[in-house]
Design a protein that fits this description.
InterPro entries: Ribosomal_uS10, Ribosomal_uS10_dom, Ribosomal_uS10_dom_sf. Keywords: Mitochondrion, Ribonucleoprotein, Ribosomal protein. Pfam families: Ribosomal_S10 (PF00338). There is one protein chain. It is built from two helices and four strands; from the N terminus they run αββββα. Helix content is 29%, strand content 36%. It is an alpha+beta fold. Strands 1-4 form a two-stranded antiparallel ribbon. Strands 2-3 form a two-stranded antiparallel sheet.
């Protein structure tokens, strides 16, 4: 699987930027291979969710410019 994280962030990060990792979620699924017999025959799969929080320290006017640009890009796409 691929993560869109690097594409979304780009190289526009501020001077003081750090990533804070939050706890991972892990969901396990178990499915019976045959509904009639062989209950011991099962197929297992899992889904992992990784989350990161990005903390940036910027000046107010820089933040205002970045938010304005992102709004402008979002309205152009639609």
């Amino acid at each position: 699987m691929k993560s869109p994280g690097n594409k979304l962030l780009g190289n526009n990060l501020g001077r003081c930027t750090r990533k804070i990792g939050s706890p991972e979620e892990r969901v396990l699924y178990t499915v019976l291979r045959s509904p009639h017999i062989d209950k011991k025959s099962r197929e297992q799969s899992e889904m992992e969710i990784h989350k990161k929080l990005l903390v940036t320290e910027t000046e107010t006017h820089e933040l205002r410019k970045k938010l304005f640009r992102s709004k402008r890009r979002a309205t152009r796409r639609t």
